[in-house]
Each structure stands twice: as C-alpha cells, then as structure tokens.
Design brief:
There is one protein chain. The protein has a 5-stranded antiparallel beta sheet, sandwiched between helices. The mean pLDDT is about 80. Helices cover about 35% and strands about 20% of the residues. The protein has a single domain, classed as Beta-Lactamase (2-Layer Sandwich).
Length: about 160
C-alpha cells in the first residue's frame, strides 16, 4: 500500500509531504525525510549514477523519479513496485499539468501552500487511497510515535561517533 508522497525541489525543500495509508508513517520530521531523499538523489548524481530509483528501508520502499527540478518519492509497504511506479508516473503527469511552472521554478522561497490540495485531488481521482482515518485525533493514533528507520540509523551512527 502506498503510504506517502513527497515532492522535493532542487533546494532540498519539501514542497509536499502527504500521508496515505497509516497516518504518521514517516514520523513528524518531514525535513529529515526530504533531506535524506534529496541527499541520496544528489549523491547518485555526484557519482555519475544514472539515477536512484528505489531505496529499501526495512519493510518500506521508496520509489523515486525526477521531473524538471523536482524529485518525486512514493513510499510503500508492499511489493507492488511496478504498479507503484505506474502510479507515480500518473502523479507526476498530473502535478505537471496542474503546476507546470513549479516543475522548472528554482525560487528557494516558493509558497508551498498552493500544493496543499494536491493530495486530496489524488484521492478524489482515486489514484491514491485516503489516510487511515481510524482515529479522530492524531494523539490517539498509535502510529504517531513511529519513527522512520532512517531516524534509528542516524541515532546509531551518532552513538558510534562518540
């Protein structure tokens, strides 16, 4: 199941970070997640890799694609990567149709409020499924305390440095 959609510009800024499936599936630190994806994407370019199209972190798979100055990432917790790649291509095409200017824009201070309705649009178009919606308040959701494996990895690296 697709759990998250993240769109990052070339300045490593998350233009959009949306949850689908379980809420809070990436924890509360969207900047860490977008920074991680951006760093991996930049590292691939630095070492002349064609691209990084998939990152596996435990049971979570990130599928990455770039278009213009943007990096699009979907996270999923199943093995339907071919289907999810097709979905990501549809999402990128829709994003480009709706926000054409932003796929080439390099302004670092873009107002990202314009993208807030895009996740709802994807749900309305039946491209992605809505958030779990099992709880009226996020505080009650057991997923609100989950952390992305990258956070655990960072803590392990920090502890080794000491």
């Amino acid at each position: 199941m697709i759990r998250n959609l993240i769109i990052i510009n070339e300045n490593s800024r998350a233009l959009l970070s949306a949850n689908f499936g379980e809420c809070h599936s990436l924890g509360e630190d969207n900047e860490m997640v977008s920074g991680f994806i951006s760093a991996v994407h930049s590292f691939a370019k630095m070492v002349d890799a064609e691209s990084v199209d998939e990152i596996q972190l435990g049971t979570l798979t990130f599928i990455l694609m770039s278009k213009g100055n943007l990096v699009f990432a979907l996270s999923a917790d199943d093995e339907n990567t071919v289907e999810h790649r097709t979905t990501l291509v549809r999402i990128i095409d829709l994003f480009e149709d709706l926000y054409d200017y932003y796929t080439v824009c390099v302004e670092p201070d873009i107002d990202i409020a314009i993208f807030r309705e895009f996740p709802k649009f994807l749900v309305d178009q039946d491209i992605l499924k809505p958030n779990c919606g099992n709880y009226t308040e996020c505080e009650e959701c057991p997923n609100s305390t989950k952390s992305l494996p990258v956070e655990d990895m960072t803590k392990q690296l920090d502890s080794r440095r000491m």
